[in-house]
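For reproducibility, we list the full input for the ribose-5-phosphate complex.
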Amino acid sequence: MVDGECYGQIVLYGGTGSPDLASEIADHLELTLCPREVITFPNTNLFVRLGSSVRGQDAFIIQTTSAPTNDNLMELLIFIETLKRASAGRVTAVIPYLGYARSDKKDQPRIPITARLVADMIQSAGADRYITLDLHAGQIQGFFSIAGDVITAFPLLADYLRKKDLQHAVVVAADLGFAKKARAFATELDLPVAFVEKRRVDTHTEALTVIGDVNGMDAIIVDDEVDTGGTVCDTTSALVEAGVRDIYACFVHPILSSDAAARLRSQPIREIVTTNSVPIPPEKRLPNMTVISVSSLLSGVIQRVHAGRSVGEMFAPYHGYS
Ligand code: R5P
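The corresponding predicted structure, in tokenized form, follows.
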């Protein structure tokens, strides 16, 4: 156990959304995940029971809220509620992937901002803090009024790619909304950056324009997440047409909904570099996929939050990811 200054000892819980990642984080912290039961009743109601006292302790619940998003989110809320009612000294929700983050603005009439609702629910359930990775948009932090640490896994991905020593390469933002982060990533790799712009030609067709010099270069496509795979596949086609050599696809959250893995498999992508912020089932693990664990990153943040030390200094050399 690691001794804390103000909140007792760390008690670490893993939800059912990301069990392997939770175990890895526990290993890094040289802790054991605390015993708990998660039961789904015949009527589909969820029930959580903690196996030991958390009174006055510094509780961390690790639960990603990817698919099944609603079940995982509800389980997270019930865990927080359980920890709070069991008199934990402080409750931190560790959410490697925040579901509903793409619903972050009212850009059409009569639609919700569900990311705001999710933030409200996490707070109302009783979380004192949250830790998450690479939010879809930095502004989502403003939906929470509790303190949080939004950290980035891109430096881990950059470390991996740097070792490949790609000499004649360019970082390509698959989405203009990702342009600032793509530029930060390119700066970190000391590479140039290019962008793919998607624009509507008429009501049925979209055209992709590559902005920047990519001809004859290796391309590293970057994005925060791959969901259906549509964005990466379209970007790959545009880059092939623009004359790139090898293509790498690099993203933090492997959502890989429905047939995304099959779509990626059919693309001329040399390597897919991602993380385990979302568990990847065996059938979606492609032979050209490298999965980098975020466990040491998250355990480092947990340790610092517990000890009341700066989290920012872990990322001091990296700028522009928020
Ligand atoms: C969009 O804003 C995001 O940055 C990703 O480009 C998007 O979530 C990817 O989705 P899909 O894989 O379904 O194209």
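The pocket of ribose-5-phosphate is lined by residues 174-175, 177-178, 223-231 (CB under 6 Å). The CA atoms of residues 40 and 60 lie 22 Å apart. Both points were considered when choosing residues for closer inspection.
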